[in-house]
Every structure is written in C-alpha cells, then in structure tokens.
Design a protein that fits this description.
Number of domains: 2
Distance between the termini: 37 Å
Strand content: 5-15%
CATH architecture of the largest domain: Up-down Bundle
Number of strands: 4
Low-confidence stretches: none
Oligomer: single chain
Radius of gyration: 17 Å
Order of helices and strands: EHEHEEHHHHHH
Strand order of the largest sheet: 2-1-3-4
Number of helices: 8
CATH topology of the largest domain: Glutathione S-transferase Yfyf (Class Pi), Chain A, domain 2
Amino acid sequence: MKRLWHWPIDPLARTVRLCMGEKQWTFEPIVIKPWVSDLELAALAPGAAAPALLDTDAEVRTSCVGTLAICEYVEEAAPSPRLLPFTSGEKAEARRLWQWSEESFAGINNTLLAERVSQWVRREQAPNSTALRQGAHALKNRMTFLDALAGERSYLAGRNLTIADLSVAAHLSSYDYFGDVPWDLTPDLKAWYARIKSRPSFRSLLEDKVEGVRPVKHYTNLDF
C-alpha cells in the first residue's frame, strides 16, 4: 500500500501526484491542511511535512518526504516511462528546469497563492494587495521565459515529457484554480499546457475541489 499525505492545491504535492500518475501508481490519499499539524505525518521522519509518501509495498518499508525525495524514489522504483531522460545531457537539462521551477515559483506560492488561500479558503483576512501585485508580476515574468521555451521545444526540457514539465504544470494549475494565470499573454505556453492538461495523469487534479471555493470555469476545460 502507498499512502500520500498532501493538500490538493499545493503545487509541490501536485508535482508528486502527476509523477505517480504518469507511472500509474495508485495510492491512498491522506488530505491534510498545511496549517494543521498531523501526528501520523510527523511520525514518519523528524520534521516531516507534506507532501510525504509511505510505501509499504516495497521490499523495505520506505518513507519519503518532500518533492525531490518522492519523485526521485518513484523514478527509480518505476523507471518506465522515464521522467528523467536517459542521456546525461538531457537529464541535466530536465533537472535544471525542475529546480528552476521549484525555486522560481516559491515566491509566487508565498505571495499570490498564499493570499488566495487566506482569502478564499481560510477566510482569515482581507487580501494583501501588495502581495497579490508582487505575485502576479512575478508570475508574468516566469511565464514569459516559459513561453519562449514552449515555442522552441516539444516539451520544456527537450523532445520528451520530463519531471520539469510536470513541476511547471503543477504550479500553473494551482494558480489557474483561482483564475490567476494570464494565458492570453503566452500562446505557446498555453498550447503546451493544454497538452499536459489532457494527459490521464492530470485528471485527478482537474477533479480537485477545495472546500469553500470552486475553480474558475475554464479550469476543467481541456480546450480553453
């Protein structure tokens, strides 16, 4: 049995879910709110936080905490289909863009996405307009870079789908749930996202519903 602690709108958890979906791994979802402590999760490892995976199907009971550990574990345990290319150069590019994605979107997660969660999910406070503006501006800058890549390559890291595509798509899908992605500014990136969005591994993300807020109308539309 595989158990995954996650929160549906967390981009890092979504990266893990896409990775596992591409490998056709089924798991028991344990949905936890990031702002609420979970004793069972804490018992997995010192300082454990979601996303976290417990695999009791493996020869040795294995727990992995964090996107990097989980995705690398899944890639090694189920090498087909490959999410990290075979050749060293292509693998390095996939890892570079995967790291770029997590680092570059971190600020947006802490501003734009955090404000949406506080405003519409937790209902805690009036929106912080400065944080929203900062996050929206940063998102446009990231999308400009990604649009250039999408216009030159079949996938972001090259000829084939990699973990880099899944990481970027996971982040954009979280922002898109709230309608914060300006797709009209980046047509090549939009076309790329439509292809990723149409993959079977993406279906569970499109079915996510967060208590208290519905996704924007185009969120589940494959031809948007």
